[in-house]
Amino acid sequence: MLCFVLLAGCANVPLESQPQVVPGERQGQSSGDVVPEPPPGIDPLSLVRAFVGATLKPGQNNAAARAYLDEQGRAGWRPSRSLTIIQDTFGTVYDTNPPPDPNTQVVNVRGVDIGSLDQNSAFVPDHSPAMLQVKVRKQANGQWRIVDPPPDLYATESDFSENYTPVPVSFYSESSNTFVPDRRYVVAKPQSGLPGRVMDLLVSGPSTSLAGAVKNLLGEPIEIDTNVKSLDDGTLVVPLTGLTGVPDDIRNLIAAQIVLSLQYVTSARIRILADGAPLVPNHPDWRLNELPAYGASLSIGQELLGLMTVGGRVRSLGDGAPVPGPAGNGGYDVVSAAQSIDGKRLAVVERADGGVRLRIGDLGHDLALTTLGGSSLTRPTWRPATGEVWTVVDELTVCRMVLDPNGHWTALQVNATDLTQQGGVTELRFSRDGARVAAVIKGELWVASVVVNGDSVSLREPRHLQQHELEDVVDVDWVAQDGLVAVTKSPSQPVVRVTVDGQRMDAFNSSNLTPTVHGVTAAPSRPIVVADANGLWTASVLGEVWRPQSHTMKDADPFYPG
């Protein structure tokens, strides 16, 4: 069994919201909770296992876990507001060097740390062996109790999933004029307190993984005035303060941010107040369907059915025909390609002079040869709302191609050291909102945020997703703003869906697929298309059997605009 080490300094997550908003509700408890004592005669190993299992049970001030401590520990234990998550299967064994006192034992908890919740209630993936030592002592009444409780809380994956619910909290992206989901986790019960706990997260700002990539519209001096509450008619009231002087356009964005975030925890009408008056004049109450279509320009038009590269040419997924111009008629020896969101432009990587080089231009016409080339270029990806094309040169240099006022494509380097120091990048793909990129590095799946500072662009906070379970990744695309589809060389799980934070991974049905699956494309409200050894296959949901794509071709690589 792997050793399991829990360090007092690990980043973990709050179990309570800010007390001024929903005091005492994080764990769904009341001060009058009655917590039973451990079973009489419980042995030290079982005592420590039960202590771990009680971490997330309802009870004021971790009362259920506190019941396993001695009297001094119950009175003095002040665990940090953090949570480390371990695999369900873990062991408790006696330490090989027991204390000389027969009435004292040291129990080692051994298992695997799969991640933690940081101080923003965001999941931070991990997979490391660890060990925690817990000292227990026989009390005067003959019962064993913990006398040296750990400074941090930790719980099993199943207990975490049972007690926490994921909520995509929304933050605004100025560069793409849309809202970006920031996946966070809140205590699920009591359900009536969920809106208040989500509002806590909104006011506290984006998680570390998105810091700098999005804007916090509810930052200081804005705060929640009093508790978020429901009226007798079901209306949910969100009372804010600190908005004096905030213009109407920002007030509308704040309303949208709140409604988009609360849609996952309430279906009620939402009344948003600023110092007692409607946040937006003449619009006190809000529902989801009243919001403008933020990010509509980032969506793929229904008439754009996608393309594929096959045999050095670009063809349509809609009818299999070659696209007009040199990209389709064999004028270029195309390795990979990407179509702009509006469908009007095409970027292709072509073989030439023993290497590859990049061309960009209007679809159906000659494509301008850029200065970018090398031994390898990743398949191009269009940065949403900017017209930029990104690719990785020789797996190490992330470049963005920008169209200057004279109509020439200029190569600018991206500050991507945080990402590229993890290894060679073989795939890079923008999320549909432009706030993140997904990358394949040494067969591993990574996600990083896109941070703009003046004229410079950086890739920050790289996160390795499902580092133990997901290997031999060959391609990736975004099926949603906070969800990815990756394909691997694995015959048992060739296609998987992964949350953007890596907290969850689900395998698609592998029926009909012939290894090796080597390509994938996905987009919201579009079927997923994968390429295997025999051709193209489509499916829309987990568990669905893959169906042959209407115009499948062997060795084709599919791609939707973006």
Short description:
Residues 195-283 form the GerMN domain. The protein is mostly beta strands and 562 residues long. It contains 8 helices and 37 strands.
Can you walk me through this structure?
This protein has 562 residues and is mainly beta. The chain has 3 domains: 119 residues, Nuclear Transport Factor 2, Chain: A; 135 residues, no CATH class; 189 residues, 6 Propeller (Neuraminidase). Strands 1, 2, 3, 4, 5 and 6 form a 6-stranded mixed sheet that branches. The N terminus is likely disordered.
Percent range for β-strand residues? 35-45%
Architecture of the largest domain in CATH?
6 Propeller
Rounded average pLDDT? 92
Low-confidence stretches: 1-32
Q: CATH top level of the largest domain?
A: Mainly Beta
Shape call: globular
Q: Count the E strands.
A: 37
Q: Give the C-alpha Rg.
A: 27 Å
Stated plainly, the CATH topology of the largest domain is called Neuraminidase
Largest sheet: 6 strands, mixed
Measured as a percent range, the helix fraction is 10-25%
InterPro entries: GerMN, LpqB_C, LpqB_N
Organism: Amycolatopsis vancoresmycina DSM 44592
Protein name: Lipoprotein
Keywords: Lipoprotein
Topology:
Layout: H1 44-53, H2 63-66, H3 71-76, E1 83-86, E2 91-94, E3 104-117, E4 123-138, E5 144-146, E6 153-156, H4 157-163, E7 164-173, E8 178-187, H5 194-204, E9 223-224, E10 229-230, E11 236-241, H6 248-262, E12 270-274, E13 277-278, E14 285-286, E15 307-310, E16 313-316, H7 326-329, E17 334-339, E18 345-352, E19 355-362, E20 368-374, E21 381-383, E22 388-393, E23 397-403, E24 409-413, H8 417-420, E25 425-430, E26 436-441, E27 444-453, E28 456-465, E29 473-480, E30 483-488, E31 495-499, E32 505-507, E33 519-521, E34 528-531, E35 536-539, E36 547-548, E37 557-559
Parallel strand pairs: 1-6, 11-12
Antiparallel strand pairs: 1-3, 2-3, 3-4, 4-5, 7-8, 9-11, 10-11, 12-13, 12-14, 15-16, 15-37, 17-18, 18-19, 19-20, 21-22, 22-23, 23-24, 25-26, 26-27, 27-28, 29-30, 30-31, 31-32, 33-34, 34-35, 35-36
